[in-house]
Amino acid sequence: MMLNDTFTDDDAAELYDVENPWDRVGFPHDRFFSDAVAGAESVLDVGCGTGSMLHVARDEGHAGRLVGVDPDAAMLKRARRRDDVEWVLGTAAGLRYDGEFALATMASNAFQCLADEDDLRDSLVAIRRALRAGGGFVFGTRHLWARAWEDWNPADGGTVTLPDGRSLRGWHEVERVEGPLVTFSETVARPDGTPLRVSRTTLRFHVPETLNGFLRDAGFAVEHQFGDWGRGPLTAGSREIITIARAQ
Ligand SMILES: C[S@@+](CC[C@H](N)C(=O)[O-])C[C@H]1O[C@@H](n2cnc3c(N)ncnc32)[C@H](O)[C@@H]1O
């Protein structure tokens, strides 16, 4: 919900980049994905957002086919500032590729946006279909049992400054937890706390057993699962489930 027109969808996409710069040196998550992309001759990045991961891949010399897909027009508009990658407005479930990619990725927990079970299943089938036999699917999701949302509350709101000098405050508020589905609002406000925009999101959290069932049903075999971005083992106490799956 936009409360006034001084904070637009384009501003929200710019804020995303300010808060989430792609940095393969500083962030183990970004290194994990950038290494996977560098090792694949063609890559489909599902939920690519502003496209930073694929921008960096090109900067680092990736010479193969790179395609980014996202349903958020403002995020994709930022991605499109570079035309050396194919950008597609759409959802995972709407993908119509057939056997074209060596690797599919969903970085920065984009996988958790697949909240509805039918949409999750349809998305996995479409991603599987987009891959060649033996192609990889690399993604992360937060582990349900770690209950990360308990740390998301209005007190977490820090202040950030956009490149044009505007200072903004932001915070999260959890509204509902129903099994694996967590609904929360995200508020962007002026430094004095006056809200400019409130958006509501539902994310699906996962446990390995059901996640692996969804993957199997869509034609994937799980090759590796890690509990952190340093490739540590997946345990009952892990905060993340990091999966490398193969198209069968
Ligand atoms: C947290 S952002 C991650 C963006 C990017 N992957 C990154 O690493 O910065 C999640 C992205 O998933 C996208 N998304 C939401 N629902 C989706 C769907 N059904 N299919 C594909 N992408 C989706 C959102 O628009 C958003 O850009």
Automatic annotation (TrEMBL):
Superkingdom assignment: Bacteria
Any GO BP: methylation
Span of domain Methyltransferase: 43-135
Entry keyword set: Methyltransferase, Transferase
GO molecular function: methyltransferase activity
PANTHER family xref list: TRANS-ACONITATE 2-METHYLTRANSFERASE (PTHR43861:SF1), TRANS-ACONITATE 2-METHYLTRANSFERASE-RELATED (PTHR43861)
Protein name as annotated: Class I SAM-dependent methyltransferase
Lineage, broadest ranks: Bacteria, Bacillati, Actinomycetota, Actinomycetes, Catenulisporales
